[in-house]
Design goal:
This protein is 50% helix and 19% strand. By secondary structure, the protein is an alpha/beta fold. Among the domains are: 141 residues, Rossmann fold; 183 residues, Heat Shock Protein 90 (2-Layer Sandwich), CATH 3.30.565.10. The longest helix has 118 residues.
Length: 500
């Protein structure tokens, strides 16, 4: 091994037992040693307060392909490494103002210089704590006098490790950046997929909604045609019965008058006539026959009401709204449902209280509104049939004009339909108007009635439908239909009555 021994008296070193003079003992400056670009191996800062050591190491390392910056104080070392961080620092231990330990500690405390490897320099006869050197952040040490090959090996090893570490950090940084970008792209894709999934779910819900509407519309159309056909077919025999009853009443009156004349003229009828009159109870027949005609007339009137109600309920809507008597629509629905209001043995009668206000005709789609009344009233009857209360079961229907606070029109017709049933539990109230939601058994409910009612009132008529319910007290549905200025001009009379 080539051994260098420093002679402090003549500023020379011993190379292979031959003295070599290296520099002027009184230099005016410490120029930076330059390595050629061809064999450049790294950037080194040498910190030593001894100019001789600086020049010796700088000369030898420069010849080996390193760019060297000699620095004589610790403070200067800190500033120059911050401005241009090197690949390695050779740091002398014993220096004035700041010793090597303090300089190394400061370097390690600075983010810009904390990763730079530090090799301590110490003479064999100097007090040097290797443990303390490693504790403050040093990676190695070399001793004076310098062994050239050892210096080169240690310097080369740590520079290569540092450069490899930097490259590894760069690769990791690039990979981290790429990973961040990939994650960001993945998040964007996930966001797009979520949006697409939401749009798809919305479209599916709209499609299901449309399908249900079509099915319900088709059902109502078929039902309307059937009901209209029945009403039409009933009207023909009704007209026949009504016309013949009128004639029959006239014939009966004529026969009674003629019989009265016979009775007045024939004071002493034969025994056979008297016996026959007694057998047929002629006096009872003459008294009861008019009552029979009255009963037949009431039946015909009832059939006419049913026929008219069927016609009103099943009326086909046009593309434009038309004026409609709300009370007429409610009454026609009640007549159709009257068989469910009567006492049927297992279900007591249900009393219907109608408190109609002075409301005008409303421009609407009558067939659709009748469907809403049917849905709400049928649900009220279902609720009352399931109630085990001993109180009189009632459905109260009220109409009035109210100030409109939620719609564009200033005033609205409000229809309130209330039952005194069991009420709707709190946990399902939010789902009442949802499509396909029902609490009824399979075959008894489709979950479409109230959902379609909400759509008819709010989307088709620009109104509002809501409800309030309390367990044990019952449920009240509130329908509000906006009124125009023209509609408010006509004010029908109040009609309060009860139907059982």
């Amino acid at each position: 091994m080539v051994q260098l021994k420093k002679e402090f008296c003549d500023n020379s070193v011993i190379i292979e037992n031959k003295p070599v003079r290296l520099f002027n003992p009184t230099p005016t400056a410490l120029p930076m040693a330059k390595a050629t670009k061809k064999n450049y191996k790294g950037n080194i800062v040498i910190v030593d307060d001894n100019p001789n050591n600086l020049r010796l190491l700088a000369s030898l390392l420069n010849k080996s392909g390193y760019k060297v910056r000699p620095v004589s104080t610790g403070k200067l070392a800190l500033s120059t490494t911050k401005l241009n961080p090197p690949d390695l620092i050779l740091l002398d231990i014993n220096m004035p103002e700041m010793d090597g330990y303090e300089v190394c500690q400061a370097l390690k405390n600075d983010v810009l210089t904390s990763d730079i490897p530090v090799i301590f320099i110490s003479a064999l006869n100097e007090s040097f704590s290797r443990i303390k050197g490693f504790e403050v952040g040093g990676v190695d040490y070399i001793t004076k006098p310098f062994e050239f090959q050892e210096v080169l090996v240690r310097v080369s090893t740590h520079i290569q490790l540092y450069q490899f570490q930097r490259k590894l950090q760069e690769v990791n940084s690039l990979q981290s950046q790429e990973l961040i970008e990939k994650n960001q792209q993945l998040q964007e894709k996930n966001y797009e997929l979520e949006n697409l999934n939401q749009i798809l779910n919305t479209k599916i819900a709209e499609l299901q909604h449309a399908q249900l509407q079509l099915v319900q519309a088709e059902k109502m159309s078929v039902l309307g045609q059937l009901v209209a056909g029945i009403a039409h077919e009933i009207n023909n025999p009704l007209g026949f019965l009504q016309g013949n009853l009128e004639h029959g009443q006239e014939y009966l009156n004529s026969l009674k008058e003629h019989f009265s004349l016979y009775k007045n003229e024939l004071k002493n009828p034969s025994s056979e006539i008297s016996a026959h009159a007694e057998d047929i109870e002629i006096d009872y027949l003459l008294e009861d026959f008019p009552k029979l005609f009255k009963s037949l007339n009431r039946g015909v009137d009832r059939l006419q009401q049913i026929s008219e109600s069927l016609r009103i309920f099943s009326r086909k809507d046009s593309t434009a709204k038309i004026p409609f008597d709300i009370h007429q629509g409610i009454n026609s629905t009640l007549i159709i449902l009257k068989h469910r209001l009567k006492d049927r043995g297992d279900s007591p009668e249900i009393q219907v209280i109608q408190e109609y206000g002075n409301i005008p005709e409303v421009k609407c789609f009558p067939g659709q509104l009748n469907q809403v009344f049917m849905n709400i009233l049928a649900n009220a009857i279902d609720a009352l049939e399931e109630t085990e209360s001993q109180e009189q079961k009632q459905i109260a229907i009220a109409t009035e004009i109210v100030e409109n606070l939620e719609m564009e029109a200033e005033k609205a017709v409000q229809i309130r339909i209330r039952d005194n049933g069991a009420g709707i539990p709190d946990d399902i109230q939010k789902s009442v108007f949802e499509f396909l939601f029902t609490t009824k058994e399979v075959g008894k409910g489709t979950g479409l009635g109230l959902a379609l009612s909400k759509q008819i009132i709010e989307e088709k008529h620009g109104g509002k439908i809501s409800f309030r319910s309390e367990i044990g007290e019952g449920t009240e549905f509130i329908i509000s239909l906006p009124l125009t200025v023209e509609e408010r001009e006509l004010q029908p009379q109040t009609e309060n009555r009860s139907i059982s």
